[in-house]
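User: Show me an example of a complex going from sequences to C-alpha cells.

Assistant: Sure. Here are the input components:
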Amino acid sequence: MDQMLLTTSRTSHLPLPSMLLPLTCQSLHQPISSPKLQLTQFPHQPSTCLTTPHDHPTSIQHTQQIHAHMIKTHFDNNHQNVPLTPFLSHLSPAAQYNFLITSYNKNNFPESSLQIYAHLRRIDFQVDNFTIPSVLKACGQCSWVVLGKEIHGFVLKNGLDGDVFVHNSLMQMYSECGSVVSARLVFDLMAERDSVSWSTMIRSYVRNRLLTEALEVVREMHIMHVKPSEVAMLSMVSLFSDLADTRTGKAMHGYVIRNSNYDRLRIPITTALIDMHAKCGNLSSAKRLFNGLPQKNVVSWTAMIAGCIRCNKLEEGTKLFNKMLEGRIFPNEITVFSLIIECGFVRALELGKWLHSYTLRNGFVMTLSLATALVDMYGKCGDTRSARSIFDGWDNKDVMIWSAMISAYAQANCTNEASDLFAQMVDRGVKPNQVTMVSLISLCAEVGALDLGKWIHLYINQQGVDVDLILKTSLVDMYAKCGDIDGSYRLFSEAKDRDICLWNAMITGFSMHGFGKEALELFEEMERLGVEPNDITFIGVFHACSHAGLVAEGKRLFDRMVGSYGLVPKIEHYGCMVDLLGRAGRLEEAHEFIKTMPMQPNTIIWGALLSACRLYKHPDLGEVAAKELLELEPQNCGYNILMSNIYAAANRWNDVAGVRKTMKDKGIKKQPGLSSIEVNGSVHDFVTGDRAHPQTGKIYEMLAEMTMKLKEAGYTPDTSVVLQNIDEEEKETSLNYHSEKLAMAFGLIHTAAGTPIRIVKNLRVCDDCHSATKLLSKIYGRVIVVRDRNRFHHFREGSCSCGDYW
DNA sequence: ATAGGGTTAG
C-alpha cells in the first residue's frame, strides 16, 4: 500500500484544477499578495474513481480525484452530481466543498484549500460557518495573515460571528501568523468560550514566548472553573517546558496535581513533568517524579537522562544510561537524538563523541535527523571540522542539516564559510527557514557584518520568509550591533506585536549607541503599554542611565526594579550601578555601594570601579580595586594594564615598572587586538601589526599617508598609551599599527569617498586611537563607526558620539 | 462536514 501511495504521489504534485484561476487580490476585492502561493498546472490525469481499495478517503490522491471529478461534471452548475464515492453523496454541496478543503488541509496542501475558497467567493457561493474554520486553518498553515484578516471581515459582514468554532479558528489563525494581540482581541470579544478557546489562547501566548500572559490565562481559566482535558493538560505541560523558570515549573506541577485525575495518561503526564522540571533547572523534582514512577518506559528514561545532561550532571546521566541498559530497556533513535542535542546544549564534547560512537557501534541507522543532531552538537561544542565531516558525508541534505551546519559556522564566527554555505544552499534550491535566517542574522550581529546582514534581510523580504518575533528581534539586534541604529529603529517601529525580547533589543540597542534618553523614553512607553520588563530590560536601562549620566534616575529605577516589579537584582545589575556611580565620578559612593552588596563582588564589579578610577585619575582607590581583581584573575592582562595606566597618569613610574615586571615574571601576554571590517560582503580581520593580508603593501602605504595627514593636522601620539606595551619589540608595532588603524586604512582604500566606514574591535578603543580616529573622520570626510567591546563610537567631523567618555 | 490537544527531537 505504501508503495502504491508513493508512486502515485510522485506523478501528481500540487493540484490546481483549471477552473480555479490564481488566487489574487482582485478575486477577493482587495489587494492581497502572498509570495508563498506557487501555482502549478493541473496534472493530466484521468478523473476516475478511487483506483485502489487501499486508498484512504482523505488521501491526497483521492482528494485530487474528487476535485477533478467535480470540475469535469460541472458540479458548480447543478450541484447534483454524485461524487466518486458513496460516502459523500448524502452531503450537501457546501459540505462536499468543506470535505475537499479539510482533506487538502490534512494532506498539507493549504494552498489548494485557499484556491477552492477563492473560487467559492468568486461564484458567490454561500460560504457557511462550517467552512470558515477550515479555510482559516489553511490561512494559518500558510501564515497568510492578510487573507485571514479579509476572512475575518467577511465573517463580521455576514453575521457568522456567533459561532464558537469560527472564533476559535480565528484565534488560532492569528496565533499561527504570530499576531497574538489579534488573537487576544478575538478572545476578549467572544460571547461564549469553550475549553478549546482557553487552550488556544494559552497556546498562542506560549508559542509567542509570552509566559506571564499565558500563566494569567491559566489562572483565569481556573477561576472560571474550566478544566482542561487530560490530553490538553499533557500538551500544556510540554508546551510550558521550553519557557518556564523554576518557580513557574513548580506552579505548573501543582496545577497538574490539583486538576488532573491521572486516569489514562499518568505516565505520559509524569514524563512531561520530568522533562519540564529538568528544563527549568529543577533536577531534584524531576528525579523525585522519576523514582516514583511505577513503570518506566524508554520515553521516561530518555527524559530523565536528557534532563541530567541538560543540568550538566554528566556522570549521573551516564550512570542512568547504563542502569537503563541493565534493565533491558534499549535506547531508540529519539533517545540518542535527545541526548546528543543536550550534549550540545551544555557543550559536553566528550560525552557527545561517546554517544556518536555508541550509535555507530550499536547498529543505529544513521538517519538525516541523527546526522543533523550530530552536526548541531559538534557545532555547539566548537568542533566545526567534525560537524563538517558529518555534513559532507550526507547526500540528500535538507533544510535542517543545512541550517545546523551554517549555525555551526555562525557560532564559531566563521562568517565567510557561513555565507558561502548559504549561497550553496540557495543555489541548490533548498529553501532556508527561519532558523537558518536567525543564525545568519545573529552571526552578522556578532561580527558586525552590516552588508551581509542587509543582503539577508533583503532575501527574507523577497522570498517571503515568515518573519516571526524571534527573527524580527534578531534583525533589530543586528542593525543595532552593526552600527545602523536608524535601520534598527525603523524595523522596531514598524512591528505591530512586540514581546519583551523585542523591546529589550531596541532598548539595549539605544543604550549601546549612547542614546540614553531614547532608551529611557522607550522604557517608559513600554511601561505605559503595560509590558512587564524583565531583568535584561533593566540591564539596558541602567546602561542608558550610565551613558546619559543620569545618576538619580538610575537609582530610582533600581528601587523600582525591586519594589514595583519584584525582580531580584543579579550581580550584573549591581555592576551597572557601580558603573553608573563611577562614571559620574562618585567613586567613594561606588565603593560604599559595593560594600553593601548582598553577594560577593566579582570581576565585573571591581572592573567597573577600576575603570572609573582610571577615568578620574584616582590611583589609591584604583589600587584597592586592582588588588581585588588580580586576586580573582591574576592572569588577566587587562587589569594589569589598566592599573599601569592609572600609575602612569599619576606619574608613579616605579609602580608602572612594578606592574610590568610582575606581568613579565608571570608570563602574562597582552591580549592581541583584533579588528574587522566588511567590504563587499566579505569580512577582513586584522590583528595588531598584521602583515598577513594579501594587500598588505597597499594598506601600509595608506597608513603612511594617514600618519602624515594626522601630523599635518597637529596630532601628537598619546605617549601614555605606549606604556601599555610590555615587550621592547612590541614598541615597533606601537600606535600606528593598532588593528583598528589597519582596518581603517583598508576601508579607506576599498570604499567610496563619503561612505561610512564600520569597524568592529574585540577590545576597548585606546585613547590614542580614539583621538586619531576623531581627526581622521574630519580629514577624510567620513563617518567612522567603531564598535568596541562595550559600546559604539560614531566619529564624525572631528568628534565622537561618546563624548570622550567610555 | 468545522477549531485545539497525545509523554522523550525539530
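The lines above are the inputs; the final block is the predicted structure for all two components together. Residues 1-37+45-160 of chain A form one domain.
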